[in-house]
Amino acid sequence: MNKAALSAAGALFALVSTAALAQSTPDPWPELAVDIFHSRPIATADGVIALDAPARAEDAAIVPMTMRFADPAQIKLATLVIDQNPMPMAAAFTLGDKSGVGFIETRVRVNSYSNVHAVAETSDGKLRADAKFVKASGGCSAPAVKDQDEAVANLGKMKYREFKSADPARREAQIMIRHPNSSGMQMDPVSRAYLPAHFIDAVEVFQGDTPIFKMEGGISLSEDPTFRFTYAPNGAKTIRVEAHDNKGGVYKGEWPIGEAS
Amino acid sequence: MLRRMLALVAALAPLVAGYPASAFSLSEIAPGVYAHQGETSLMTRENAGDIANLGAIVGDEAVAVIDTGGSLIEGRAFLAALREKTQKPIRYVINTHAHPDHTFGNGAFLETGATFVGHKNLPRALAARGPHYLSAFRAQMGDALDGVTIVAPTLTVDQIMTLDLGHREIVLQAWRTAHSECDLTILDPKSVVLFSGDLLFLQHVPVVDGSLLGFLDVADRLAAIKATQVVAGHGPLPAPWPKALEDQRAYLMRLTADLRAAIKKGEGVGTAAKTAGAEEREKWKLFEDYNARNATAGFAELEWEGP
Asked: Cβ contacts (< 8 Å) between B266 and chain A: which residues?
């Protein structure tokens, strides 16, 4: 084999690999913006919404994401999109009027190298987005349920935690729900049947009877979905949660709000 | 012209994977017990996924293979090396769990007609994770991943199972969720060698892909197994048993204590993942690759403790 042929082959090989790479990772965002936000113009965040995301997904199944709002009164809806996931729309949070939600932290699955978008709809009807790039986890980390038997055994259990809030005008709390939140897209190698999907699709959180937020989501949320957030207290005595899954499961919890803020 | 060029590219392909099959080492660590030590590294194109320890036990009649490596290339090299040691039929191929570095070589053993054996949860774990593993590892392994298929076991172990290799009965034991949700150990009572799979890591930082508390519990119960030597899933082999468990236990205990303290303080998972276990950093290889991941998963698990 002569040198010219080798270098030509090398060039072709490089061309093929680059093309393959480009083909395997086209930017899905323009299409997602059409599908999820119906082609409405999306402006830059401009401080209205900010997304905290780790530079690398340490565990593909549990990647913390925090959406922060400069002025909660301005935010109607905040949507978290994992661009490269099979179901990119991870969660959409409708904030209650005067709920004063300063941030919402949740955990998602990140299948591969992906942009993550946090999109706020403000009270004037405009959309603003912040985005972060998240590197995929290395090694044998998969966006899968850790222990499927355990996940089923504990289905629907809930836990409520309170934290000392950095902001004296707000309280900080966390809602945790035991659920496999499984995608169901994998095929059982023995039966050759697809496992059915089983995931939380809606969670409503109230103080007393007043909504703090309502979340609509899907399989991109991690197993045991969890939401940590701040809110402006209205004097209610309890935090109440109602969660629904795609199989009709309904899970409820109610806890007294602590004295200390 | 284009077709000729493509043919040329295809012809070059086998040359670009740099894994020297001739270098595959398989040593007899006890009479009839063979083991291969993988490199303490991440799976790459250059090492063809050869990062896990593998083994084989030879009875009077037949052979049991324990894990098959991280690629078809490595699986074939293992089979060739094993064939130089024994011509007896390979009756069983046992996978200690679902991870790619232990199962991606399975395809190389299909032609032997062996029965594939694993934990009762292994088929489910491979179904849930296999397709992701195949696509995720393409980026770091390139063409060294060619030909890899997901081969699930047809013989599964609920608790304990004995396999007869001809005057050599080996004991397979399935464990609760620990390193993963499908960990299986293999004891050869004749040589008193234990193959722990990834229920034991040496030098390579332990990886928690199941349950941190389960890992601690199972590792403690493993210590009761009557063996004198162990082939860990990763690291030097053979190692003295049960002394070999000590470093891993210290790591898992430190991580658990740090995470509990972080949760009590009200830290978030992202913050805790940066600091938990840090004291163990100098004691382990690949710490930066796995510790934050272990801490993340451990945090999500331990957060459910208490009222």
From this structure: 161, 163-164
Task: Walk me through the domains of chain A, giving residue ranges and CATH numbers.
Answer: 26-256 (2.60.40.2470)
A59 contacts chain B (CB < 8 A): yes
Strand order in the sheet with A226-231: A49-52, A63-69, A103-108, A226-231, A171-177, A158-163
User: Do residues B223 and B131 lie in contact, with contact meaning Cβ atoms separated by under 8 Å?
Assistant: no
Asked whether the beta carbons of residue B268 and residue A105 sit closer than 8 angstroms, the reply is yes
Count of other CB atoms within 10 angstroms of residue A169: 11
Q: How far apart are CA A9 and CA A7, in angstroms?
A: 5
Q: How far apart are CA B136 and CA B14, in angstroms?
A: 21
* Contact residues, chain B, for A145 at CB < 8 Å: 128
Q: What is the ipTM of this complex?
A: 0.87
CB proximity B42 to A under 8 Å: yes
Q: Is A17 helix (H, G, I), strand (E, B) or coil?
A: helix
Domains of chain B: 15-244 (3.60.15.10)
pTM of the entire predicted model? 0.90
Residue B47 pLDDT more than 50? yes
Residue B68: both structure tokens together:
């098959």
What is the average pLDDT value for chain B, to the nearest integer? 93
* Closest-CA residue of chain A to B44: A139
Within 13 Å and on the Cβ side, how many CA atoms surround A159?
Answer: 18
Cα separation of A142 and B197, whole Å?
19
Is the minimum CB–CB distance between B304 and chain A shorter than 8 Å? yes
B225 burial (CB, 10 Å; 0-12 / 13-18 / 19+) is middle
Say whether A12 and B207 touch across the interface (CB within 8 A). Answer: no
Of the candidates B286, B134, B112, B156, the residue with the CA atom closest to the CA atom of residue A187: B134
Q: Do B12 and A136 touch (CB under 8 A)?
A: no
Mean pLDDT of B178-192: 98
Nearest Cα of chain A lies from the Cα of B19 at a distance, in angstroms, of: 19
Please indicate if any CB of chain B lies within 8 Å of the CB of A195. yes
Instruction: Please provide the DSSP assignment of B184-223 as one string.
Output: EEEEETTTTEEEEEEEEESSBPP--SS-HHHHHHHHHHHT
Phi and psi, residue B194, nearest 5°:
-110, 130
Report, as ranges of residue numbers, the positions in chain A whose pLDDT lies below 70. 1-25, 185-193, 259-261
Say which residue the tokens 């007899």 belong to: B28
3-class state of residue A48 by DSSP: coil
A192 CB within 8 Å of a chain B CB: no
- Enter the tokens of residue A233: 């207290």
